[in-house]
Predict the 3D structure of the following.
Amino acid sequence: MASINWVGVLVAAIVYFFFGALWFMALFGKAWAKYAGLNMENPPSSGAMVGMMVKSFLGDLLSAIAVGLVIVYAHASGDWMRGLKIGAVIGFGIAGGAYWMTYNWTKKPFMLWVLDTAHVTIGCAIAGGIIAAMS
């Protein structure tokens, strides 16, 4: 798989995961739960929560791999700002577009799209900056 920096990808995925924890727990958790239609008065069991966290990390890892591959193909290695921009475009353009279509058909609130798309856009931008800087 190209000359991707796997250590950079792993570091980026870990940072993306903790950024998500900050985003959904400290910054926008209550608003996100409201727009997503989740009842936080009855949270998942600790075992179910661990499973969801592992799956979330795997999603962050998959995103970091994709961003890393685009950085390699775009010859952006070593340029953290270019990597950050590539990550932001991937996050907003692909995830934002996919969320837009899905949320349209499932009739999810616009603000849920804003929160989810902003999370992925910023997360992929951070990942892109880290991967490019470490390549």
Notes: The two ends are 14 Å apart (CA to CA). The CA atoms of residues 6 and 88 lie 20 Å apart.
